[in-house]
Write a structure and sequence with these properties.
125 residues, alpha+beta, 2 helices
């Protein structure tokens, strides 16, 4: 009979236990829920108060880790107050540019570095 080598079994990776969901009515009830000693996370929604509690055995300390979560409404970004009174109307600016150009023309005009007369708002926009 031929010699058969014993088969080596590879250890199967352990998956964490599935979470346990148990609705509760208050914080006190959530704290009183039995901790799962297999290490499964216990999720306890408290819909009437808007909380979700979790409890899980901490294998390092031997005690239960308890946490409470609450949904918070996201705060809207504060809007900057735009004070429109600090801005000049385009019609007022155009009128001021027209008056400035008229004064420049009365004084003999102004010449820029390109040798042409410079007029404020000359493009008409």
């Amino acid at each position: 009979m031929p010699y058969q080598q014993p088969m080596m079994q590879q250890p199967m990776p352990q998956q964490p236990p599935a979470p346990i969901v148990r609705p509760v009515a208050s914080l006190d009830e959530a704290r009183a829920v039995q901790t799962d000693f297999g290490g499964a996370l216990t999720i306890m929604p408290d819909i009437s108060h808007g909380f979700i509690y979790t409890k899980q055995l901490n294998f390092q300390t031997g005690s239960a880790d308890f946490a409470a979560y609450q949904r918070v409404q996201e705060q809207a970004a504060p809007q900057q107050d735009i004070n429109l009174s600090e801005y000049v109307k385009k019609s007022d600016f155009d009128e001021l540019a027209r008056r400035f150009n008229a004064l420049c023309d009365q004084l003999g005009g102004t010449t820029n570095e390109h040798g042409s007369n410079a007029h404020a708002g000359a493009d008409g926009k």
